[in-house]
């Protein structure tokens, strides 16, 4: 299995009463720093922006 680590920026709207969460935006980054730079633009809004690590299988679909 050929895995790499990527960073996912997940922007969500959390409403009351919990657990109502709506996904607003999602984007993949190669580095944590790049994810955090883009996250900073979302932090000013009333949304929840998270940078999350994910393992990604990079093999072609035919080899999985």
Descriptive notes:
With 64 residues, the protein is α+β, with helices and mostly antiparallel strands. It is 19% helix and 52% strand. The chain is built from one helix and three strands. A three-stranded antiparallel sheet has the order 2-1-3, with helices on one face. Strand 1 and strand 2 form a beta hairpin. The longest helix is centred in the middle third of the chain and has 12 residues, at 32-43. The chain is flat. The termini are close together. The mean pLDDT is 88.
Write a short abstract of this structure.
With 64 residues, this protein is of the alpha+beta class. The chain contains one helix and three strands; from the N terminus they run ββαβ. The longest helix has 12 residues.
Q: Any key phrases for this structure?
A:
64 residues, 1 helix, 19% helix, alpha+beta, 3-stranded antiparallel sheet
């Amino acid at each position: 299995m050929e895995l790499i680590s990527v960073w996912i920026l997940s922007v969500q709207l959390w409403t009351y009463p919990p657990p109502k969460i709506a996904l607003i935006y999602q984007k993949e980054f190669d580095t944590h720093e790049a994810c955090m730079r883009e996250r900073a633009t979302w932090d000013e809004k009333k949304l929840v922006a998270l940078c999350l690590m994910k393992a990604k299988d990079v093999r072609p679909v035919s080899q999985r």
